[in-house]
Specification:
heterodimer; A: alpha+beta; Sufe protein. Chain: A; 3 strands; 47% helix; B: 419 residues; Aspartate Aminotransferase, domain 1; 2 domains; five-stranded antiparallel β-sheet
Amino acid sequence: MIEERLYREVLLERLENPVAQGVLTKPDLEARLVNPICGDEVLIQLKVKNHIIEQAVYSGDGCAISQVSASFLAESITGKKLEKIRKIKKNDILNLLGINPGPSRLKCALLSLEVLQKAVDQ
Amino acid sequence: MLENIEKIRSDFPILKRKVYNHPLVYFDNAATSQKPKQVIKAITNYYENHNANVHRGVHKLTEEATELYEGARKKIADFVNGGDKRQIIFVRNATEAINLIAYSWGRENIKKNDEILLSEMEHHSNLIPWQHLAKETGAKLKFIPIDEKGELKIKNHELKQYVSAKTKLIAVTHVSNVLGTINPVKDIIEQAKAINPKVKVLIDGAQAVPHIPVSVQNLGCDFYAFTGHKMLGPSGIGVLWVKKDLQESMIPFQRGGDMILRVTFESATWNYIPWKFEAGTPNIEGAIGLGAAVEYLSSIGMKNVREHEKELTGYALKKLEEIEYLKIYGQNNIEKRVGVIAFNIVKNGKIAIHPHDLVSILDGEGIEVRSGRLCAEPLLSIFKAEAAARVSFHIYNTKAEIDRLIPAIGKAKKIFKVA
């Protein structure tokens, strides 16, 4: 069932009521990426103090999977040490979302992690 | 509908498979078509009985392989009324055909401040090579605009605004891969050549040759490009039709084996056309497979193919238009379009279900539909759409399959609470 495989109710609720969505005027770190295949776009911005992420927000445009993934990811890293970001793996994101997308939708699910790690690597 | 539709469907082995436990509905034919067993058998027959390199040596197998390869060239030339089969150059796909023109003709003939005229509905394959050539040479790109129905704005002789003595090349698509629009390319060529008799015209026929009868010589173009895999043939084989005298004047695209006549350590002379443009061992099995595909299409008749798809398109447009919030990009006059329908679910001016999500839900029902930027990002931006979903038909599709699409879109709306 597609509702179990990809579109769990909790994800669709998150899409309607997004958490950590927003734009910071003076972020300490930020990065933006576009998935050229579908046009999904995610911007992640961070406020950082003493190597701790004080605030993480996302904004963008794209499919449900890419945007919900950005929301859950931004929420989950608030209060975390910056160095932990590099250790986040593909499966951590899939566990966070509770879905198992096929190869074609995996890119959507992982776009926000790619953006976040790019922001931190700068 | 085609009377023998069930017989036709039985020719396509893949139509028997299931996707997520549902019988497959394949609606992504504008991306690539399925292959009938006649094409698959032609390829295996070549490998099992005749495999050898072509145009080389004098043994029996190479003779047979060459005959099959060159025989395919003749079949394909006849299929598009291309005249002399030497006007058919085998390439990998339509993209390579267009790159070949840009390199072998464009770089030699297009100079600073010359103009290349395209349209706003080009596939990236007929845009990026010209962007690159314009950068290299200092030439300018111009675009024929489209109207809200998705037709080129040329009905009131506007073409004279875009074509002048500076225009060296016009490169337009025969059929849009997003809007389905069939462009009046014969008129465009006639009008353009009346304004500037020296202008060369390239028609991108990738979405036309698989679906409508095409007579290349009747169009009066200089170049015509199309690809095998969208017309029931294998992938990796495409066709560039070029007038003989023009071919003679063009430089080789790639250099190496088979494209030469005499070679010394210092220099070489080029082979006769079209082999001058086919360096290296070609895609022999691909050409043979494409030959079988045009035989298959001819056995049905392209007029019948067109009629069948026209009926499906009219039916699909009617059913899709009944769905609340469904927006179709393109017109509903089936005489002026083919069975390529791009759409979105749009509510309050915003895309309410991203096409990727919509198509994933359709996929869950066994219905394979394309989503994304459709290789036409600038065109979609005119319609203020970042991406779209697209259904596209071929001869094996049926109204019953469209009847499965409609409730599946309804299911997507339900999951995403679009009401």
